[in-house]
């Protein structure tokens, strides 16, 4: 008997479901960053708004990357519904703390998918996910550094203005190696 | 009728069957014939997955606990597929059992193909 399902699709139904979940997660991240950009812009933190706009675009790119991978492998990519996007934040610091939380959760969920792939010996998807692991190094570094700025500079006086100025300069040089 | 089923079955491999129905695979046509609820319907790769999702997604407990006067039937309609099922609760349970068994067997076939033929080939 022919293995029709395998002939039609490289990835298993479980991995496909996990990747679709990740597509949704990336879409939610993208929307959350957009919301953060809006809050920062409204409150006068222009550099941070710019930083979040860029982050939002990046998350969208990640979403599409997984989306196209699922399709290329013969699966069904599902365009996600994004709901419950936050509009208001209590403070400037809270915005960055949430951004870091979000990145940690993305890393965790990609780790989860990789664990499942290893279990199934799906090294093709593992190899695909490696790009994301590398990307998460940078994403987490940047988000962590932004929160760190709050402790280093302090929010008193012109502190927040100074933090905003430095957020735009956060850069990960990736010296830990390619 | 009996003869026509037998004629088809020559090229079909039984994947899984219960007392309520059966699923056969046609290697030539790359599809599955599902004999259930009084008819034999053909499903290709995309449609059988949609059917699986639709049947697995029915909340049987909710239907059983539902005390409203509406009939206990569920209409299963698969987008871009010619077939539609109107099932009672018992039929849904039986259909789910049939599909679960089918996918276990298909998975088993996948493992066998992987381990026995693809690696040794």
Short description:
With 178 residues, chain A is mainly alpha-helical.
Molecular structure report:
The complex is a heterodimer of chains A (178) and B (121). Chain A is built from six helices and no strands. Chain A is mostly helical and 178 residues long. Chain A has a single domain, classed as Ferritin, core subunit, four-helix bundle (Ferritin, Up-down Bundle). Chain A is elongated, with a radius of gyration of 19 Å. Chain A starts with a helix and ends in an 11-residue tail after the last helix. In chain A, 31% of the residues are buried. The mean pLDDT of chain A is 94. Chain B is of the alpha+beta class. Chain B has one domain. In chain B, 46% of the residues lie in helices and 27% in strands. The longest helix of chain B has 30 residues, at 89-118. In chain B, 21% of the residues are buried. Chain A binds chain B through residues 1-9, 13, 76, and chain B through 13, 15, 25, 27, 30-31, 45-46, 49, 106, 109-110, 113-114.
As an assembly, this protein is heterodimer
Backbone shape of chain A: elongated
Terminus-to-terminus distance of chain B: 42 Å
CATH architecture of chain A: Up-down Bundle
Report the sheet-strand fraction of chain B.
25-35%
Helical proportion of chain B, percent range = 40-55%
- Rg of chain B (CA only): 16 Å
Order of helices and strands of chain A: HHHHHH
What is the CATH topology of chain A? Answer: Ferritin
Q: What would the average pLDDT of chain B be, to the nearest integer? A: 87
The biggest sheet of chain B, with number of strands, parallel, antiparallel or mixed sense and barrel status, is: 4 strands, antiparallel
Helix count of chain B equals 4
Which range does the strand content of chain A fall in? under 5%
Largest interface (CB < 8 Å): A-B, 11 and 14 residues
Low-pLDDT stretches of chain A: none
Structural class category of chain A: mainly alpha
Largest sheet of chain A: none
Enumerate how many helices of chain A there are, as a single number: 6
The total tally of domains of chain A equals 1
């Amino acid at each position: 008997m022919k293995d029709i399902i395998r002939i039609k699709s490289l990835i298993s139904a479980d991995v496909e479901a996990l990747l679709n979940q990740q597509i949704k997660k990336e879409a939610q991240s993208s929307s959350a960053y957009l919301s953060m950009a809006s809050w920062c812009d409204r409150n006068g933190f222009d550099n941070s708004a710019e930083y979040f706009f860029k982050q939002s675009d990046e998350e969208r790119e990640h979403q599409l990357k997984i989306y196209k991978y699922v399709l290329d492998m013969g699966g069904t990519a599902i365009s996600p519904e994004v709901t419950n996007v936050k509009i208001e934040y209590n403070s400037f610091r809270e915005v960055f703390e949430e951004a870091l939380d979000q990145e940690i959760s993305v890393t965790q969920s990609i780790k989860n998918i990789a664990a499942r792939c290893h279990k199934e010996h799906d090294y093709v998807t593992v190899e695909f996910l490696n790009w994301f692991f590398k990307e998460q190094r940078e994403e987490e570094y940047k988000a962590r550094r932004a929160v760190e700025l709050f402790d280093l500079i302090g929010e008193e006086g012109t502190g927040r203005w100074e933090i905003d100025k430095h957020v735009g300069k956060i850069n990960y040089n990736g010296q830990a190696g390619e | 009728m009996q003869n026509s089923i037998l004629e088809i079955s020559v090229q079909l491999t039984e994947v899984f069957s219960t007392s309520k129905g059966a699923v056969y695979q046609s290697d030539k046509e790359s599809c599955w014939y599902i004999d259930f609820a009084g008819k034999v319907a053909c499903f290709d790769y995309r449609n059988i997955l949609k059917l699986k999702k639709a049947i697995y997604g029915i909340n049987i407990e909710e239907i059983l606990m539902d005390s409203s006067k509406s009939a206990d039937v569920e209409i299963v309609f698969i987008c871009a597929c010619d077939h539609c099922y109107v099932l009672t609760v018992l039929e849904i349970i039986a259909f789910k059992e049939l599909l679960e068994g089918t996918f276990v067997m298909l998975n088993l076939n996948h493992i066998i193909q992987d381990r026995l033929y693809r690696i040794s080939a």
